[in-house]
Amino acid sequence: MTAVPEITVRKVDLQDPEWKPRFEAFYAGRQVKRLRAKPHAYFAAFAGGELAGHSVIYFDKGRWIMDGLLVKPEFREMGVAKRLTEARIRHAIEQGAPEIWYACDDGNLVTICCHLRFGFQKVCPDKHRCTAATAHWYRLPVTPELKGKFLK
Ligand SMILES: CC(C)(COP(=O)(O)OP(=O)(O)OC[C@H]1O[C@@H](n2cnc3c(N)ncnc32)[C@H](O)[C@@H]1OP(=O)(O)O)[C@@H](O)C(=O)NCCC(=O)NCCS
């Protein structure tokens, strides 16, 4: 049986000239937000020292929104996405977020399975037309219980 490598997560800065090329290479060919002015935090996950996953959480129009979750195929199903999501939830709670959001389409069963475990629930905000073809919003209220779990 192959041993699962140790997974670590740290906050990274897209403006860091050493990090930027690694970020661009990681997301090559994919759409991802490159944030500057809006409050945000990028998190990178490492498995046995190798870059295994990346993600972001940012603040827009009064909401903390998770985005850009991607794990390299060879490091999937080892808990990398879970760790990146925990880091982003903790960051938002530390920033005083009353709730945390993300959007994905109905076909993305994996992301739904990775996030619902934390208590996210599907909602259709005003002005959004939720159909089978559109992305759906998911919301996690920051309750005292959630804070207790994440700010130990
Ligand atoms: C979705 C994705 C981020 C998951 O990353 P991951 O590191 O493999 O996920 P984790 O190992 O942290 O898994 C978290 C949970 O999801 C489950 N899971 C992960 N991949 C799964 C799969 N292919 N099928 C079923 N369940 C799966 C895990 O079993 C785990 O649940 P558990 O803790 O109850 O066992 C990764 O597959 C990926 O990068 N996919 C392509 C990009 C993408 O879809 N990004 C999301 C865009 S919104």
Brief overview, please?
This protein is an alpha+beta fold.
Question: Describe it for me?
Answer:
The chain is an alpha+beta fold and 152 residues long. Helix content is 24%, strand content 34%. The protein has a single domain (7-150), classed as 3-Layer(aba) Sandwich (Aminopeptidase), CATH 3.40.630. It is built from four helices and seven strands. The protein has a seven-stranded mixed sheet with strand order 1-2-3-4-5-7-6, covered by helices on one side. The longest helix is centred in the middle third of the chain and has 15 residues, at 80-94. It binds coenzyme A. Coenzyme A binds next to strand 4, helix 2 and helix 3. Coenzyme A binds at residues 69-71, 76-82, 104, 108, 110-111, 113-114.
